[in-house]
């Protein structure tokens, strides 16, 4: 997020001085690290949680259209940078990987058929295919079928336009662009406090993780892009807008296989249905991952609970985030989400073999010897005040900004990295409203659809999707 915002600001206002403070020794070692997230270019091509079934049985597609629109903004921003030589060869961070949804059981098959019917004619979902035929599905993803009972009803959708994104490589390249253009990036520097001074500047206090004395820097504008730790730092800033917000950390694990024979047999991201009580981001999926030139498979995530707000955080993070103003929302969100708590406890207690059985629901002939566990990133879900319920748990992301726009941060986790560009454009509009007119030509050069909705303009959608596909070398 910080790398995206910093790059945008460098493009819009090259004379501004920008400083990045990162507590770890390199960029993108937390959630944006390629092995800490699933690398799905989230565009709702396959993720079923964006298309819930309504009580009348019809499918709600507005969430899917929104996420797809957002990803098209990211594609445009990355294309602009690639075209100008500000990002390297696209395959270093984005690779074509078909996106599939795969379900079993009569009810789920009916749901997927209806979802396909609801999306197939939408301009942003052009090319979506559907099948209930095992031989067709086997052609799309060979490992899904052998070992499965012939009597089991199954269905899948597939779209070639899906992508696998190495968000770590992307963040590293954006940081390099910023540094090459005058930004100062300081690693091993942990921000410990953020306070407003009488002169209106923000004082950012830092501690060196390695050697050297603490130091302060002063800024007119601060973006708290600290991932799971943003809540804590925004609380320290004392802005009233953060009052009532809390965080609920969810940890995770993936299974990974580098077995070349298996990797060669599966080239897709295959998303299934979430288990009852599971948070939407715990939908299981079997993924091709392309990282630093080599391909692996990944399955998961298996959710769990840890009170840390970052993978490298402290077990006191959750406890330290509790304030009088967020106590009621946090208790209400906890008691209102007992099925989630039950699900997480169940996942924590689950035996290795039970977890592997989840993989075998996708890949019946999968063998434990080919897979090993890796720890995923921490996600801190947003808890916020709710007039009726006292507090609610939210699964999206949310920008929290001071009324004068001098400080802002991003809470929440999903869909996250895929939508960093539209989220940061929104933040720019919130925090720099008086500059937007002057910046508009450059904003349109970076994102040609800026200010427009692609779903309202199929011709524009077609030309933009075709163009970004050519530049990023991914299917249309
Ligand atoms: C299991 C899992 C799967 C996911 N799958 C996907 C996916 O498939 N597609 C997708 O688009 N998104 C996915 N996401 C979400 C995505 O990873 C995140 O939304 C995104 O990486 C967040 O980026 P960020 O810059 O906000 O946070 P981060 O990448 O976590 O960066 C925050 C940075 O702030 C630093 N920091 C924290 N505190 C301080 C401090 N006090 N001082 C200095 N530095 C500090 C950290 O060290 C870190 O480098 C997934 C997330 C998880 C956990």
UniProtKB/TrEMBL annotation:
Keywords tagged on the record: FAD, Flavoprotein, Oxidoreductase, Tricarboxylic acid cycle
Cofactor: FAD
UniProt-listed Enzyme Commission number(s): 1.1.5.4
Cited NCBIfam families: mal_quin_oxido, PRK05257.1-1, PRK05257.1-4, PRK05257.2-1, PRK05257.3-1, PRK05257.3-2, PRK13339.1
Family annotation (InterPro entries): FAD/NAD-bd_sf, MQO
GO biological process, one term: tricarboxylic acid cycle
Family: Belongs to the MQO family.
Full protein name: Probable malate:quinone oxidoreductase
Origin: domain of life: Bacteria
GO molecular function, one term: L-malate dehydrogenase (quinone) activity
Source organism: Conyzicola nivalis
């Amino acid at each position: 997020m910080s790398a995206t915002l910093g790059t945008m600001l460098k493009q819009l206002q090259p004379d501004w001085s920008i400083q990045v403070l990162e507590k770890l020794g390199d960029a993108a070692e937390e959630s944006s690290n390629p092995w800490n997230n699933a690398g799905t270019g989230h565009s709702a091509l396959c993720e079923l949680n964006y298309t819930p079934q309504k009580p009348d049985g019809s499918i709600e597609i507005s969430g899917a259209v929104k996420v797809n629109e957002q990803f098209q903004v990211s594609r445009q921003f990355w294309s602009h940078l690639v075209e100008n030589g500000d990002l390297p060869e696209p395959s270093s961070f984005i690779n074509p990987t078909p996106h599939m949804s795969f379900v079993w059981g009569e009810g789920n098959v009916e749901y997927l058929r209806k979802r396909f019917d609801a999306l197939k004619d939408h301009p942003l979902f052009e090319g979506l295919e559907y099948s209930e035929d095992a031989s067709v599905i086997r052609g799309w993803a060979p490992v899904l079928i052998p070992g499965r009972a012939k009597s089991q009803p199954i269905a899948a959708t597939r779209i070639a336009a899906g992508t696998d994104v190495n968000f770590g490589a992307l963040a590293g390249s954006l940081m390099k662009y910023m540094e090459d253009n005058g930004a100062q990036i300081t690693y091993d520097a942990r921000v410990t406090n953020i306070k407003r001074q009488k002169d209106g500047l923000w004082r950012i206090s830092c501690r060196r993780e390695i050697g050297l004395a603490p130091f302060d820097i002063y800024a007119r504008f601060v973006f708290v892009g600290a991932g799971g730790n943003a809540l804590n730092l925004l609380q320290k800033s004392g802005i009233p807008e953060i009052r009532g917000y809390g965080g609920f950390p969810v940890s995770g694990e993936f299974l990974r296989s580098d077995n070349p024979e298996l990797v060669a047999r599966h080239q897709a991201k295959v998303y299934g249905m979430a288990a009852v009580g599971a948070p939407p981001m715990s939908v299981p999926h079997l993924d091709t991952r392309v990282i630093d030139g080599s391909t692996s498979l990944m399955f998961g995530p298996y959710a769990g609970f840890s009170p840390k707000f970052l993978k490298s955080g402290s077990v006191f993070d959750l406890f330290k985030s509790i304030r009088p103003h967020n106590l009621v929302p946090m208790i209400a969100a906890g008691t209102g989400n007992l099925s989630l708590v039950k699900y997480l406890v169940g996942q924590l207690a689950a035996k290795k073999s039970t977890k592997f059985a989840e993989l075998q629901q996708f890949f019946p002939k999968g063998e434990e010897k080919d897979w090993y566990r890796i720890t995923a990133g921490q996600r801190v879900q947003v808890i916020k005040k709710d007039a009726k319920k006292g507090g609610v748990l939210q699964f999206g992301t949310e920008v929290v900004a001071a009324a004068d726009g001098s400080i802002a941060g991003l809470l929440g986790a999903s869909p996250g990295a895929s939508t960093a560009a539209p989220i940061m454009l929104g933040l720019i509009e919130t925090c720099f409203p008086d500059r937007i007119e002057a910046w508009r030509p450059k904003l349109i050069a970076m994102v040609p659809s800026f200010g427009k909705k692609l779903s309202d303009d199929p011709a524009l959608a077609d030309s933009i999707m075709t163009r970004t596909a050519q530049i990023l070398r991914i299917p249309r």
